[in-house]
Specification:
This protein has 218 residues and is of the alpha/beta class. The protein contains nine helices and six strands; from the N terminus they run βαααααβαβαβαββα.
Length: 218
Amino acid sequence: MKAVLFDFDGIIIDSEWPIYQSWLKLFQREGQMLEVSDYVQCIGSDFETWSPEKLLEQLTDKSFDWKKENAVRQVEIESDLEGVQPIEGVVGLLQWLKSQGVSAAVVSSSTHKWVDMWLEKLDLLQYFQEVVCRGDAPRIKPAPDLYEEGARRFNLAGGECLVIEDSLNGVKAAKAAGTLAYAVPSRLTSILDFSEADAEFSSMEEMSNSLKSLFESI
């Protein structure tokens, strides 16, 4: 393994929960419920995979000004994330990888605007040689394109990379790209079956300790 490719939302920061909460509030405003078991279908991907917008329209038999609704949700999300810190164990792992000379990249289905903003705010850009986001490859997760692009930027084959993911869409993308895939489920995605992953961990700290032990045994 010569590079570690990190998902962003749910792996670097716990941003998926406030995003889900913003959707839940909107559904509840309309007298509806948004089950986690439904919502997790779009985590790690986009609304082409599964759409809360389409679901709410079907449930209410209404149309919505999604540009307006999503702008309001965005303000709520950023407010909820004010003061957010990296998920426990992330910074220590990044520092250790840097000390070992192992390359690291963020590979996310989110936009550069979103990912770069948080990496800069949290002073994490220093740990990543590459940041690959929506628009940097033809398709986003669960297609393998983003992870293939991440490996390509390091001039590596997929099998020389380890992916760290919290979503099933992300794990599917990683395996399709030929990489090793470690799953660290979030409080939303913990309901999913991650048997497709090469290993599953309860926390970033547990995963980090396992990864360090693996390196020490080589």
